[in-house]
From TrEMBL:
Species whose genome carries this gene: Streptomyces benahoarensis
GO molecular function per UniProt: methyltransferase activity
Family annotation (InterPro entries): Methyltransf_25, SAM-dependent_MTases_sf
Name this polypeptide is given: Class I SAM-dependent methyltransferase
UniProt keywords, alphabetically: Methyltransferase, Transferase
GO BP terms, alphabetized: methylation
Domain Methyltransferase, residue spans: 60-154
Pfam families: Methyltransf_25
């Protein structure tokens, strides 16, 4: 997809007709060569913001995939970094690329973000590009699971891109993609949940607060501004009181 190293159209079609877990197992070997991986500019801007918020000792990457967020955590955490994901294939790619390490120690755990297998052991949790795989009604439970993995005062941090301008090419692309996924899930089982259009800051903030977080926002100026001067991307910083 878009590069010789990326998945073919046939491979993407097979993935789209699979479950989320199986689909990402299939996509894992070529995932880092697709546009679905979080861009380096977003990762770098987030890492810079986290460095200013720290120091941190233990970090958790929720829905870590092949480890983009794990790399960010390894820059800002001093003792331990854990990546958790439902896909064994994505974890295997991340483990092969990044390994374990000693400082910080890096671990890879297979698990469902809706039932995280952790006691309150982390002072920082992050997530990049995974929230479209959860329906809005699942957000409060998902965020409650992350809160349960954080020590008191711990932070859950993730970037949120400003919504596409109505009428723009990106706006209609997201509408078309969302519609195609809804049609697919109406006529085919198992479902493949990937709806990014509903993930808007207002609803997300309300769900975080309902889960017990105090929510703040930080602009990421490195990623530019919109024509009205507002940031193109903000960092949600949710603190477990």
């Amino acid at each position: 997809m878009f590069t010789p190293q990326g998945p073919t159209l046939r491979e993407l079609a097979v993935q789209a007709l699979s479950s989320v877990e199986r689909g990402y197992d299939l996509l894992a070997p070529t995932f880092d060569h697709t546009p679905f991986r979080t861009p380096p500019a977003v990762l770098d801007a987030t890492a810079a913001a986290l460095a200013a918020l720290g120091p941190f000792e233990d970090g958790l990457d929720v829905c870590c995939g092949t480890g983009a967020g794990v790399e960010v955590l390894r820059r800002v955490c001093g003792r331990r970094v854990v990546g958790v994901d439902l896909s064994a294939g994505m974890l295997a790619v991340g483990r092969a690329a990044l390994g374990g390490g000693d400082r910080p120690r890096t671990e890879w755990v297979r698990g469902d973000a809706r039932a995280l297998p952790f006691a309150p052991a982390f002072d920082l949790a992050v997530s990049f590009g995974a929230f479209g795989h959860f329906l809005p009604r699942e957000w409060p439970g998902l965020f409650a699971q992350v809160r349960g993995a954080l020590r008191p005062g711990g932070r859950f941090v993730f970037p949120v891109v400003a919504p596409a301008r109505p009428g723009s090419a990106l706006y209609w692309t997201l509408w078309a993609f969302d519609g195609a996924m809804r049609v697919r899930n109406t006529v085919w089982r198992p479902p493949f949940v990937m709806y990014y259009r509903p993930f808007r800051l207002g609803g997300v903030r309300a769900a975080l607060e309902r889960a017990g977080f105090a929510v703040g926002l930080r602009a990421l100026p490195e990623l530019g501004t919109r024509p009205d001067g507002s940031p193109r991307c903000r960092l949600v910083v949710a603190r477990r009181d």
